[in-house]
Design a protein that fits this description.
The protein has 11 helices and 7 strands. It is an alpha+beta fold. About 4% of the residues have low confidence.
Length: 361
Amino acid sequence: MLNSFRFLVKTLLFLAIGVGLSYGQTPQKAEVKLLSAVPDRLKVEPTLLTTADLTRISDDALFSRYRKTVVMEGRINNYMDQPAGDKAVRRYLVNQKHELSKQAIRIGEELAKRNAQKVNAKWSHNRAFWAHEVQRMKQFFLANVETRTKTGKNLTCVNTFRRGVSFLYDRSGDVRKSKNSLVQYGLSVPPDNSIESLMARAQVCGMASPVRVVQCISPWGRKIDEGNWDKPVKLNENVWDVLMGMVNEDPRFSVFCLSLADGYHVATLTVDNRDRSNPKLYWADQTNNHNDGWEEYQRKDSGRPTKYSKNYVRGLNEYILYAIQEFWKRDDPRNRPTPIIRIWRLYNNPSRNNLYTELKG
């Protein structure tokens, strides 16, 4: 979906420059004229858009780069909220904002990889959550679905995830009023409101693992990559096994963010591993399709993935494939989401990096 959007924006920009050429301007002159119309405060440093080798950049430099990137995203976002403005400039800024978002996600992933080495070297209490913390989160999901059932009103899937997991870190469950500055920043709404950008913020704050990607298989037996809209017929891995591998035998509760179909839908997965010989997994989101808001899933298929029933337990893999296929069919063929799955694990004790110190101070 992101690639199709990028292609559209670049096409529009090309047409805009083409209009300039039709009046006798060279491509260079048309571009200079366009850039001169962009307000100075919205001009992005070229270094922020370069695909630099992030592994060679220090933590401090990455934090600084990330801050500058999201500040520029926010400025562009505020400008785009205003109805007035030059159309060519607005098209140009849409493309700039998209590229900034990509860079912010890259930085988050690099910092998460570095942080994972520290977190995995520590005791499991840095990764797993306690029962009372998960219970606070569960109560929110139950109440949220009850409100939806009674009033028909509910939060978006991304905001449901944000509110739900905030209870893991803070009793208030209100990101904006949380006494934990790290939570306020790590779970605050990113400029593009996408789950990837949100999790990049969590990664920068040391709250989330590197992303784990699971792909779908096309009717021709090929893995479906980003930007490809082939019909998904099966998953290339068992998601249950992937999650248990990420749990890595940690006791207590492990909590995950699950992104389906390139962010088309977001859910919260919780693994109860208090009995390591018989782990249990629960699904929660903003819909009323999962029991009362907290549905148990199993590894093996039930053969009936489409609807919850108290008479059987649905299989995680079969339901995820069913959901992705439904999302794929639901949209216009020209705007279908890429059938790709992303998983992040949340950490109970965020690493005390420089940004942590800054936010806590």
